Amino acid sequence: MTVTADFVVAGGGHNSLITAAYLARAGYDVVVLDARSEVGGGAATEEILTPGFLFDTCSTGHTLIQVNPVISKDELRLVGEFGLSYVEPDPVGHVVFPDGESFTMWLDVERTVEEISRFSASDAVAYRNMLEEFDQVKGVYSSYRFTPIGYGPSLDDALSAHPAGTVWRRRNVMSAWEVIRREFESRHVQAFMTWMAFQTAQPLDSPGSGYLAYSLVGGRQSRSWSVPVGGSASLPRALTAALEAFGGSIVTDTLVTALITEGGRCVGVEAEEGEQYRARVGVVSSIHVKTLVDMAPSELWGDDFLYGVDTYDEGLSSFASYYAMTEAPRFISSRGESVAAVSAGPAPWPEDVLEFGRGLRERRLHRPGTFLLFATPTLVDETRAPEGGHTLKILSLAPYECPDDLGGDWATGKDVLAAEHFGALLDCAPNLSEDHVLARNAKSPVDIEAGNPHMWRGTIHGGDRGLAYGGPQRPVPGWASHRMPIEGLYQTGATTHPGGSITGGPGRNAAIVILDDLGMSLDSMVAKGGSE
Ligand SMILES: Cc1cc2nc3c(=O)[nH]c(=O)nc-3n(C[C@H](O)[C@H](O)[C@H](O)COP(=O)(O)OP(=O)(O)OC[C@H]3O[C@@H](n4cnc5c(N)ncnc54)[C@H](O)[C@@H]3O)c2cc1C
Q1: Hey, how many other C-beta atoms are within 10 angstroms of the C-beta on 427?
Q2: Confidence of residue 1 (pLDDT cuts 50, 70, 90)
Q3: Residues 119-140: what's their mean pLDDT?
Q4: Of 127, 202, 321, 396, which is the most exposed, with the fewest CB atoms less than 10 Å away?
Q5: Cβ proximity of 344 and 421 under 8 Å
Q6: Which helix (H) or strand (E) holds 194?
Q7: What is the tens place of the pLDDT at every residue in 342-360?
Q8: Is-contact 185 120, C-beta < 8 A?
Q9: What is the mean predicted confidence (pLDDT) over 196-216?
Q10: Domain residue spans in the chain?
């Protein structure tokens, strides 16, 4: 069987759906292929345990995409026409420290500052300063993230042109931990800041992670952990509706296994059963670059590109467990009141978090530093569970190869590790016991990869985001502008700038480049209302 379209898009995560929707809106005939039975990749909501309990099996918080013009200007009419909406949970988050003290972050800055001042008056001032300083430069960062590499100044140049540029150019190459330990004196406040900064799984001592010390709290303080009503899959559902309204189509259950090349040009893809999808204009991929290079002859990629992919760091792998609950976790606030938060967790001491991050690279779990995020979106969206019920996801990190002290095999080791994580939840949430669990499930890094080959080796952000693999280095220096070495082939998704998470940045940036190659400006096309 052969299908022909202007553009064939391999992989239907939210990024490639965004690229596809812009291309379709510009008047191109687009077909999106995905290996799974539903598109959306890491933006998925699934009934995995018991009827009526709809779990965000991957992402829950969509904070980062809120400043992407896809949402902020509603360029694809996802909000205005195709049913996408968000809630901003308050409190934003709650953490419990190893000594039993706790901390609640509120959308109201004053309330958060009050919590900080319980630990240190000077840290309360530092927190306020941090937010103010971040406010001044956040526009520079978001403009950089939502502009394709090569289409605007480098981040260093953009910061140089800013009045506070000297300070931020230094912060930009520091590590998150270097920033946090300089700005805050209290061990508790440092622990809270490291818990927040670690949420994108970037090691906190990696050069270039300094920005995360600001961006995570800055973003959450503005709009919380934005949660899509109906679940994470509401985003790809709205994108699907937009794509189809613009004339595009989707084919699911189709694993792409090879690129079709003719005369050195990529002219389509081949799927597992031998079906061919041929492209008149171009092919867009969000297949992980580590496997993409095996899908065409090596001479077409060239040695430099292959070297870049070979040395591209996969990043840290994730581990997740899921619980259908009869009650949501409730914690004890600093005032002794019962508090529930969509996003919560234990916040280990910073030195343990750093050691936990290092251990992951060495197939070792430094348990006192375990990063855990308890996500309970049903607290703000009751459409996802039967009355009174809650979906709880515990997100953590673990080595791809199962550590020996968990038996060396994830098939059994995952239940042992998930039980440890649930035990940590019970330590933090006194209202809960095993009796509140209706059903449970755990996914090791190996399971995460098996469910989505783009999450290569169980890494969920398309690869490390340190200095060597970000911006103009992502995925490979010289090929960061979405154009791949094989003519006719473009890359989007988390392995491209600005990387993983639900940002839509790689998706929109790729569309800008592709339309530019076709002599069209994305901005003018949107302003004109597409090709309609
Ligand atoms: C447990 C967990 C929790 C997370 N929590 C958050 C969170 O709260 N907030 C956040 O911002 N991010 C979170 N993430 C990360 C986020 O989900 C990803 O970074 C994001 O989904 C990347 O989007 P993408 O569009 O680049 O690719 P993906 O979402 O990975 O989509 C890629 C798509 O391509 C398809 N595909 C891959 N290879 C092929 C092939 N060969 N042929 C056909 N189809 C293919 C896949 O089936 C998939 O649908 C989480 C991830 C996990 C696993």
Answers
A1: 12
A2: confident
A3: 97
A4: 396
A5: no
A6: helix 187-197
A7: 999 999 999 999 999 999 9
A8: yes
A9: 95
A10: 2-43+73-84+229-313+461-527
**pLDDT at residue 532 tops 70:** no
Q: For atom 48 of ligand 1, which residue has the closest CA?
A: 41
* Mean of per-residue pLDDT scores for the chain: 97
Q: How far is the CA of 165 from the centre of ligand 1 (A)?
A: 34
CA dist 378 to 23, 54, 274, 448, Å?
35, 9, 42, 23
Residue 8: helix, strand or coil by DSSP?
A: strand
**Residue among 92, 272, 317, 452 whose CB has most ligand 1 atoms within 8 A, to mutate:** 452
Residue 503 has pLDDT above 80, yes or no: yes
Residue 444, both tokens: 């090791």
DSSP for 239-294 reads HHHHHHHTT-EEE-S--EEEEEEETTEEEEEEETTS-EEEEEEEEEE-S-HHHHGG
CA of 122 to the centre of ligand 1 (A): 40
- Reply yes or no on whether the pLDDT at 30 is more than 70: yes
Q: In the structure encoding, which two tokens stand for residue 442, read together?
A: 């755990």
Establish how many alpha carbons lie within 13 A of residue 492's alpha carbon, considering only the half-sphere containing its beta carbon: 31
* Nearest in space to 71 (alpha carbons), one of 503, 525, 530: 503
- Ligand 1: atom nearest CA of 34 is 44
Residue type, 34: D
pTM given for the model: 0.98
Where do we find the tokens 């997740």? 320
Average pLDDT over residues 458-476: 97
Residues 6+ apart with CB under 8 A from 260: 266, 267, 268, 269, 270, 276, 278
CB 6 within 8 A of CB 247: no
pLDDT of residue 138: 96
Place of tokens 């209706």: 438
Q: In whole angstroms, give the CA distance from residue 178 to residue 394.
A: 28
Q: Which amino acid is at 496?
A: T
Give the residue, out of 45, 58, 253, 395, with the most ligand 1 atoms within 8 A of its beta carbon, to mutate for a pocket test: 58
Per-residue pLDDT at 529: 87
Using CA atoms, how far apart are residues 473 and 359, in angstroms rounded to an integer? 26
- CATH of range 2-43+73-84+229-313+461-527; options 3.40.50.2300, 3.30.70.100, 3.50.50.60, 3.30.360.10: 3.50.50.60
Cα distance between residue 59 and residue 43, in whole Å: 6
Instruction: Give how far the C-alpha of residue 321 lies from the chain's centroid of Cα atoms, to the nearest Å.
Output: 17
- C-beta atoms surrounding 218 within 10 Å: 20
